[in-house]
C-alpha cells in the first residue's frame, strides 16, 4: 500500500475508533450493563488498541543511519 | 501528618532534584537551542518521562479522582480518549521534528509565524499561550498550597506551600534550562507513577481485600457509577465538552508540542511516544481506581476534590505512603509548572523580542529568555495568591482557549491555502469566545465552551483564509520538503 493510501487508511480507522469511544458507552447495551466488564472494559480495550496501532505506525519510521 | 515531617520530605526532594539539575547544567551548551530544547538531542526514555511529567499535572490524583468520585466511569473514558490524542503525534510529531530541524524553530508559535509569513501570527499566538497557561499554572500552585495545608491540618499555611513549590520550579529551571527540567521531570515522573501505583495497591488490599473486592463492592453498591451518564455528571454534552478540547492537547499546548522538536532522532521520538502511552495508561487507571476507592470508603464527602487528601488521612494508608503520595502529587504539579514557565519564556524571547528587534544576538536573546523564567514564576505566584474566580475560569478555559490554535497548526501541514489573516482571526475570536463562555457560564444549545471555540476557530480559519492571499512560495517550500522527507522516512 502506498504511503498516501496508508495515511487515509489510518486516518479513517482512527476516526471510527474515536467516534466509537465517544458514542458506544452512551448506547445500549453498555448503558444497561453496570459491570466492570461494561464501559470500564470497553474504554480500556479502546486505549490498548490505539496503543498497538501507534506501535505499528511508529515502528515503520526510519532514520537516516538506518537506510 | 506533622509539618516538620512534610518540610523534611520536601527538603530532601529539593536536594535530590537540585543535584540532578546541577549535573544537567554541566552538560549544557551555551546557545538558545541548548537552553530551551536541550540541543534537540533528548534520548527517548528521558523524552518520554518529561513528556509524561509535563502532561500529567496534579489534576490526575486530585481532579480526575474527583471526577470519578462524582461521575463514575465516564472519567475513565474522558482520560483515555485524551490519552488517545497521541494519535495526533503519529501524524504531526515527525512533521514538527523535521521542519524544526530544517528551519531551526525554537517554538511552535515561531513555526506558525514563519509558515504563514507573519510576525503578528507568532506574537499573537505566543500572547494567547501566556494568557491561558499562566492561570493554568497558578491553579497547579494553588493545588499544592491547598494539599500541604490540608494534609498538615493547617500547620503549613497555604502561602508557604505555594512559595515552596514556586521556588523549587524556578530553581531547577533557572539552573539548567530544558535539560535540567527534563532530568528532574524524569525523577518526578517515576515518583508520581510509583507512589500512586503503590498506594492504590495498598488501598485495594487493605480496604477491600484486593482489586476483586473493590470491583465487587462497586458492582453491588454503586452500579450506576459503572455506566454513563451514570450518576448524571457525565451526560453526553458534558462528556464531549470536557473531552474534545483535551483530545487535541498534544498539539494545542505549546509546552507539550515544543517537545516534538527535542528528540535526537525519529527512533527516539518513537520511544517517547510509546513510553508516554504506557505511562499514561497506567497512571489513568491508578487515578480512576483511586477515585472509585474514595467513593466506597468515603461516601459522604461534600467536595469531590477533597477525596484524595481525606483518603490519605485514613488509617488504611500508612503515614509513610501518604507522605510519598503527597510528594508524588507535588511532583506532578511542579513538573508541569516548570515546563510551562520554560516554554513561555522561550516564546517571549523568540516570538516577541526577536520579532521586535531582529538584530539582537543569540546571547542577548538567551539572557532575555532566562530573565523571564523568574519573572513568569513571580507572575504565576502572584496569581496563585490572589485566588480569584477569574483564574479558575481561565484555567478551565485553557483547554478550550488553546484549542483555537489547532486549525492553524493542522493547516500549516495540510492546507496550502491557509493565511495569516485566517490564523489571527481564528485565534483571537476563538480565544475570546472560550473566555467569555467559560466566565459567564453561558452554554448556547447546551454545548460547552470548547466545542464552540473549536467550531468558531475552524470556520474563521477556513473562511478568512479563502478571502485572503496565501503565502504560496513559503507553503510550497515547506510542504514539498516535508513530502520528500516523509516518504524517505516512511512516515504516514
Describe it.
Chain A has one domain (3-66). Chain A is 67% helix and 0% strand. Chain A has helices at residues 3-23, 36-59. Chain A is elongated, with a radius of gyration of 16 Å. Chain B has 492 residues and is mostly helical. Chain B has a single domain (3-488), classed as Sodium/glucose cotransporter (Up-down Bundle). Chain B has 22 helices and no strands. Chain B has helices at residues 3-26, 32-37, 44-55, 59-71, 74-84, 87-103, 108-115, 119-151, 158-208, 211-221, 236-247, 249-252, 254-257, 266-297, 307-312, 319-356, 362-386, 389-403, 406-414, 420-440, 449-467, 472-488. In chain B, helix 6 (87-103) crosses helix 22 (472-488) and helix 7 packs antiparallel against helix 8 (119-151). The longest helix of chain B has 51 residues, at 158-208. The radius of gyration of chain B is 22 Å and the shape is globular. In chain B, 58% of the residues are buried. The model of chain B has no long low-confidence stretch (mean pLDDT 93). The chains are: A mainly alpha (67), B mainly alpha (492). The A-B interface holds A 3, 6-7, 10-11, 14, 17-18, 21-22, 25-26, 30-36, 38-40, 43-44, 46-48, 50-51, 53-55, 57-63, 66-67 and B 73-74, 76-77, 80-81, 83-84, 86-87, 90-91, 94, 215, 218-219, 223-229, 236, 239-240, 243, 247, 265-267, 269-270, 273-274, 277-278, 281, 284-285, 486-492.
Amino acid at each position: 500500500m502506498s504511503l498516501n493510501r496508508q495515511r487515509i487508511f489510518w486516518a479513517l480507522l482512527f476516526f471510527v475508533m474515536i467516534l466509537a469511544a465517544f458514542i458506544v458507552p452512551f448506547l445500549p447495551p453498555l448503558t444497561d450493563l453496570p459491570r466492570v466488564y461494561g464501559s470500564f472494559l470497553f474504554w480500556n480495550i479502546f486505549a490498548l488498541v490505539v496503543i498497538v496501532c501507534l506501535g505499528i505506525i511508529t515502528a515503520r519510521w526510519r532514520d537516516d543511519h538506518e537506510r | 501528618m506533622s509539618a516538620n515531617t512534610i518540610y523534611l520530605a520536601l527538603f530532601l526532594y529539593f536536594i535530590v532534584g537540585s543535584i540532578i539539575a546541577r549535573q544537567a547544567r554541566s552538560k549544557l551548551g551555551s546557545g538558545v537551542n541548548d537552553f530551551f530544547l536541550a540541543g534537540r538531542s533528548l534520548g527517548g526514555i528521558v523524552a518520554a518521562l518529561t513528556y509524561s511529567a509535563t502532561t500529567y499535572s496534579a489534576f490526575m490524583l486530585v481532579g480526575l479522582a474527583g471526577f470519578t468520585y462524582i461521575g463514575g466511569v465516564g472519567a475513565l473514558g474522558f482520560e483515555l480518549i485524551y490519552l488517545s490524542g497521541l494519535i495526533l503525534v503519529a501524524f504531526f510529531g515527525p512533521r514538527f521534528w523535521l521542519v524544526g530541524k530544517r528551519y531551526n524553530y525554537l517554538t511552535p508559535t515561531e513555526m506558525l509565524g514563519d509558515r504563514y509569513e507573519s510576525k503578528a501570527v507568532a506574537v499573537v499566538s505566543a500572547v494567547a499561550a501566556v494568557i491561558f497557561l499562566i492561570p493554568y499554572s497558578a491553579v497547579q500552585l494553588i493545588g499544592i498550597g491547598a494539599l500541604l495545608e490540608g494534609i498538615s491540618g493547617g500547620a503549613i499555611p497555604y502561602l508557604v506551600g505555594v512559595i515552596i513549590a514556586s521556588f523549587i520550579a524556578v530553581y531547577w529551571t533557572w539552573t539548567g534550562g530544558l535539560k535540567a527540567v527534563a532530568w528532574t521531570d524524569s525523577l518526578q515522573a517515576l515518583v508520581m507513577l510509583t507512589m500512586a501505583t503503590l498506594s492504590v495497591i495498598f488501598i485495594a488490599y487493605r480496604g477491600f481485600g484486593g482489586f476483586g473486592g473493590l470491583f465487587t463492592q462497586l458492582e453491588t453498591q454503586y452500579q450506576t457509577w459503572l455506566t454513563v451518564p451514570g450518576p448524571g455528571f457525565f451526560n453526553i454534552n458534558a462528556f464531549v465538552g470536557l473531552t474534545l478540547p483535551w483530545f487535541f492537547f498534544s498539539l494545542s499546548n505549546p509546552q507539550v508540542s515544543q517537545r516534538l522538536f527535542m528528540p535526537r532522532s525519529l527512533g527516539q521520538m518513537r520511544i517517547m511516544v510509546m513510553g508516554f502511552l504506557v505511562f499514561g495508561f497506567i497512571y489513568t487507571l491508578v487515578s480512576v481506581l483511586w477515585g472509585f476507592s474514595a467513593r466506597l470508603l468515603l461516601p459522604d464527602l461534600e467536595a469531590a476534590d477533597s477525596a484524595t487528601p481525606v483518603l490519605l488521612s485514613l488509617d488504611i494508608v500508612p503515614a509513610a505512603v501518604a507522605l510519598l503520595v503527597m510528594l508524588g502529587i507535588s511532583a506532578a504539579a511542579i513538573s508541569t509548572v516548570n515546563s510551562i514557565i520554560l516554554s513561555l519564556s522561550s516564546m517571549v524571547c523568540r516570538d516577541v523580542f526577536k520579532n521586535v528587534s531582529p538584530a539582537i544576538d543569540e546571547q542577548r536573546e538567551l539572557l532575555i529568555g532566562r530573565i523571564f523564567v523568574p519573572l513568569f514564576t513571580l507572575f504565576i505566584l502572584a496569581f496563585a495568591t490572589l485566588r480569584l474566580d477569574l483564574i479558575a475560569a481561565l484555567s478551565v478555559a485553557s483547554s478550550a482557549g488553546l484549542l483555537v490554535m489547532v486549525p492553524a497548526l493542522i493547516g500549516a501541514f495540510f492546507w496550502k491555502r491557509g493565511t495569516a489573516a485566517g490564523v489571527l482571526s481564528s485565534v483571537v475570536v476563538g480565544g475570546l469566545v472560550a473566555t467569555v463562555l467559560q466566565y459567564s457560564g453561558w452554554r448556547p444549545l447546551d454545548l460547552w465552551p470548547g466545542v464552540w471555540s473549536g467550531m468558531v476557530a475552524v470556520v474563521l480559519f477556513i473562511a478568512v483564509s479563502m478571502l485572503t492571499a496565501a503565502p504560496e512560495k513559503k507553503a510550497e517550500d515547506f510542504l514539498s520538503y516535508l513530502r520528500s522527507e516523509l516518504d524517505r522516512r516512511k512516515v504516514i
